[in-house]
Amino acid sequence: MGRKWNNIKEKKAAKDKNTSRIYAKFGREIYVAAKQGEPNPESNQALKMVLERAKTYSVPKHIIDRAIEKAKGGSEESYDELRYEGFGPSGSMVIVDALTNNVNRTASDVRAAFGKNGGNMGVSGSVSYMFDATAVFGIEGKNADEVLEMMMEADVDVRDILEEDEAVIVYAEPDQFHAVQEAFKNAGITEFTVAELTMLAQNDITLDAEAQAQFEKMIDAIEDLEDVQQVYHNVDLGE
């Protein structure tokens, strides 16, 4: 699939670590997941999934605990889950997921981030039809054949299993996230380099140097927004 998930995650984590913004984003996401269900990951699958993702980004325990305690404490703070779709330079496509307590502010901020950097917002559905919701897991220390055997023994269907650099990446349907996770854990694997639900472009595109520089500037502007949780796109940014 050409995504180089470990490289993408490492670049993103390195950038986020410098500003600690990823902690704030995870804190918000954990709070929302805990608020919408039980504040216990064993009985709240959405919370369990967020915590697994947080673990791969080394989110500190006190950030996680504070968000869950805030939900337990009956905080009235509420957030809307929003998805924006848009276009960047040279046919690039972008999906933006946000959690916000001010819909008008977020819509204005996302629109501005697109518009000031050579892009434009589209209507709902204008981009998402070119992406597939996908569960992605990455592990180290095994090869693709060994991972395939784990999945077969657990009777778990996956889309693809690829070796990327020194990791094995598993792609599966979103509703198989927990089944894949359990298959790994039953095989004694509890550490993941990647464990998340994503929107995977059906076809990646490559931009020329000038368009890519403009695209990366646009993505940085969108990701820097406080309310934005995830950004997905169809551009192959290389190594």
3D architecture notes:
This protein has a domain at 5-72: Arc Repressor Mutant, subunit A (Orthogonal Bundle), CATH 1.10.10. It is built from eight helices and eight strands, in the order H-H-H-H-E-E-H-E-E-H-E-E-H-E-H-E. Strand 5 (160-164) and strand 6 form a beta hairpin. It is an alpha+beta fold and 239 residues long. The longest helix has 16 residues, at 21-36. One of its GO terms (biological process) is regulation of DNA-templated transcription. Belongs to the TACO1 family. YeeN subfamily. It comes from Pradoshia eiseniae.
- Largest sheet, spatial ordering of strands: 3-1-2-8
CATH superfamily of the domain at 5-72: Integrase, N-terminal zinc-binding domain
Share in helix: 40-55%
Shape: globular
User: How is the main sheet built?
Assistant: 4 strands, antiparallel
> What's the CATH class of the domain at 5-72, please?
Mainly Alpha
Mean pLDDT: 89
Instruction: Calculate the terminal CA-CA distance, rounded to whole Å.
Output: 14 Å
The name of the CATH topology of the domain at 5-72 is Arc Repressor Mutant, subunit A
Number of helices: 8
Strand content: 15-25%
Number of strands: 8
* Computed Rg: 18 Å
- Runs in which pLDDT lies below 50 for 5 or more consecutive residues are none
Indicate the structural class.
alpha+beta
What is the CATH architecture assignment of the domain at 5-72? Orthogonal Bundle
Pfam families: TACO1_YebC_N, Transcrip_reg
Keywords: Cytoplasm, DNA-binding, Transcription, Transcription regulation
Protein name: Probable transcriptional regulatory protein CYL18_07225
Family: Belongs to the TACO1 family. YeeN subfamily.
